[in-house]
Request: fold
Amino acid sequence: MTNRRTTRLSLITYLGICTVFAQGNSDGHASDKAVHETVPHNQAGGGASSTAISYHGGPVLANGVNAYYIWYGNWSGNTSRTILPVLAQYIGGSPYFNINTTYYNGSGVHVLNLVRLAGQTNDDYSQGTALSDGAVQTVVKAAISSGALGPADPAGVYFVLTSADVNETSGFCTQYCGWHTHGTIAGTDIKYAFIGNPARCPNACSAQSTSPNGNLGADAMASIIAHELEEATTDPDLNAWYDKRGYENADKCAWTFGATYITANGAHANMNLGGLDFLIQQNWVNASGGYCSLRY
Reply:
């Protein structure tokens, strides 16, 4: 489920999760009604394990995060390209991303509540429609070496976003929905993530069939991006913040959403960023004993 080389967001069905949405205040505390078969429900904290998350000495992205999007495959006419950039542009500075300020490095410097969308580029199936883990790294390497995203950025997280016709052969849709890791590219320690398109397998990787922005794939990807972003921020080299089972901050709150509201089209959402509604998984606040929430 989680290992220290690549950490993966497991499937909804794979984890045996039954999610019931609760309307109310979006603070993600006692109003949360998510049930997780393998992790005990924590009424005060939003459904995650009470197992402590601890620091293991590695770096964090303390001084702000630069998000890069690599649009892999065919995105012609797809509204994802207007929805997902809004997430990256507005998640920084939000009460939600502020949760990550409860994490710090070995010098006691806390993560800043700062994210910016630093670049975007396209990749027209350079590795085909069936990607291995290694091919994902090749896609990132090509985007950096071509100069399409500027020089290699040690403060960046590079997201490979795939269209619905693209599979990741190590287990997308059958074992996980996304993952993050790191590797040396252009002489730099680069953090990168695979974000699969849940339109390929909505029952496994989307929490609802009607989505806030009318694009099931993009709306579900937004939640996966947020999950991988916060983990890549607080555990970029897989040796910083995680619990004794290897769960990182977002893993501890995976597929729990706190209190939600109903959008005009009948979808559930729990936050508005840049004028768009999103349904985003909660994150682990590493303070006051630890709990899942949508804000800090």
